[in-house]
Amino acid sequence: MASFGDAGARSWLGAHGPTWGWLAGLGLLVADLVLPVPATSVISALGYLYGTLGGGAVGAAGSLLCGTIAYEGCRRFGQQAADRLLGAEDRARAARLFAGGTGGWLVALSRWMPLLPEMTSCMAGLTGMPRRRFYTALLCGCLPMALMFAAIGASGTDRPGLALALSAAVPAVLYLAAARWLKRG
Questions:
Q1: Domain limits of the chain?
Q2: What is the DSSP string of 10-52?
């Protein structure tokens, strides 16, 4: 396949049929950890094939799984490597950023941008960002982004401007509410 934009993603996932297309979509979203997979195109194609809710659910699950693998893998195996590469002082400085409120915002808002979701999840894991804060922010970012891009795919349009704006605003509003809830608990 020469191009893996929206049309290419729809074609590729459609070739797997409705029975296996969702699994191929999950695989592509997780592969985004190591390959330059355009996640928003994959989620849009999932919306085209399964509708807004079905495609959004699979897209959110894939994005959550990708974020979880990046975070947990780096948290478990990467801290010593980060100390060697960055130095303990720089990693500690980054850890303070991710332990505070800023880290949650970075995780939630990064989900709709290319390349940043995986790097941000890895950094959150490397710095030991608290799991409760990470997973709350990850959920606040993944759900609206996946539903917005699945809605674009379900409607059959290729104009993601409104979805980009909403997928940036909705995670911010959700995480603002979640951050207040986290402070209480």
A1: 6-184
A2: HHHHHHTHHHHHHHHHHHHHHHTTTS---HHHHHHHHHHHHHH
